[in-house]
Give the backbone structure.
Amino acid sequence: MEPGTTNQVEIQIPADHPSGTYWYHVHKHGSATFQFNSGMAGFLIVQGGPGTLDAVPEVVAAKDVPMAFQVLRSSNDGRVVFVHQQAQQFGTFPFPDFTTNPPTLPPPAEQGVWSTYGLDGQLPLQPDGKTPAPPSRYSYTTNGVANPTLQMRPGEVQRWRLLNATDGDNLQLVLVSSQNGNQGLGLNVVAMDAITVPKTYHLAAGDPLVIGPGQRMDVMVKAGQPGTYVLQTLDPNSGEVKASVSPYRDSNGSGIAPAWQPSRHSFDFPQPCPATGQASSECTKPGQFKYPITLATIVVSGKTKNMNLPADPLPTPKGLPSIATMLSRTPDKVRNVVFEICGNVAGFEPNARTLPSCGWFLARYDATYWGGTPFNVLQMMRDADDVGEPNADPLMPRINFQKEGLFHPNQPLFPDMIAGNYEEWTVYNRTFSDHPFHIHQNHMLVTKINGITLPQPEWHDTLDVPAARCTDPPALRVRTRSRGGPQPQPPGGRPAAIVGPNDSAPISTCAGPPANINLATPGSITFRTYFNPVTVGCFVAHCHTIDHEDLGMMQRMDILPANGGASGCSLDGDRAAIPLIERLIAGNNGFQVCSALPQSKAKSYSPTGSGGLSNRSPDTAQ
């Protein structure tokens, strides 16, 4: 859709399409983050059809409340700004020093893609790349409003459709009472990514529900005694909260592979305190914007309205194969996919601590590939079975990979995905951060997380792939500090100063900086999927951390007809909008290309350690 145009879109929904909570957002590759920052997303709710949750009496009686969580960003004067056009790396590094006058800043090429919003989360720069600009602004919103108020009556049950429409925040949601001594309320999960679950997941009050970027969770909430409650997202960044990406809990209330679930986007975006790797005890500045963040306030008052939660089992969706069929079928194909990150910036050039693929792919994606100016950080999604060939050069130990590591619009990752087939995939994460895997068109039945079998398999179209892990027993712990605060470590290997004085948590075997990813165990999810014949054609799978996707952590997927013919995919060749886009971003006239209304409750935050020095590793670790 070109600027200023109106397009009529008609979608034919198959009669057996699963009802539930879906959504839409802009997907212009390379510009999705920019458009996400201005809030371009919304709900698509499909109702009716066979096996629908909408037919359950307790759900029918409940008030239906959609809640879309977003982070809206703007410059200080309320404008949405585009990327830093001279950036040659993902995030700003070396870190700027704002304690000097004037500030000591890295050259433009070493400033991050989103340094238009801030340098290491602090002041952004004017278009000259040298002069600090006023602090940028950001707001956590629910349906476009900061901290709206909802009303419930004691005993009332409501259905909340929760959508994480942020660019890269892992939400860890709890519903707590704002009155001392009053217990919070539990969240009861009845659907995930639009698909009804076989049996409700009942989370106790205070037990966080993790919703990764792009995920939707339908929860039933039963109001308690009168009072005020707040729906909050907990601190995901210090490691002090351990949570599972699955809502499954055993009889003891324990989840599958609970771990640190940090939010992931460029550190140049200002964010609440604590930032990644920072202890919550360091968030001491007066008026500082910090976790937990309140997304909505719920006031319970009035006459009691005693309602019931839906009873199990819940209806089985009719538009998908049964779970029994998915598990019993021998997969027609078994595939392995991997998320990888490579950096070629100061201190992070290819070496024995980086992935064996990095040297070859960094050489492949050179300045010519990027249009004449090098870009030195690769966010890749690859075929993990494409292992290349051994090479004697220690800086390039594997060479001659056969497939692209970055998105290519004309090359599907796999040439033999056939309609009607059942496949099993494992998606590995060989980085020290979560990556939400999202596949279009066909849902996936997740059977394992980090190799641990789920007692109740889960339908998803998006799920966080946990970060790589590297740990030693507690006896091998050491303490390390840097000038700006705790020495950064990968998840599972944080310094004792963060996890507390008891030294009971493990320390990394691959401690750095930089940490050695080759000594880590990759995070993973394993799933079964069925290629419905109605989805013949081409689409994409990608990381739903949007600025990762924009830089190439995405692959084209083609589903071929059962007879082995072509997918029939014809990509849009319309280049009419290119001159307009070039005019908007050309030259040094400034990055401001779109105006937005000021956000009344936005705040800026400068997440630094003592002396104004950063306490984080550079964005190549993302």
Summary: The longest helix spans residues 578-585. The radius of gyration is 24 Å. Confidence is low (pLDDT under 50) at residues 472-507, 572-578, 583-617. Helices lie at 32-37, 57-61, 323-328, 358-364, 496-499, 546-550, 578-585.
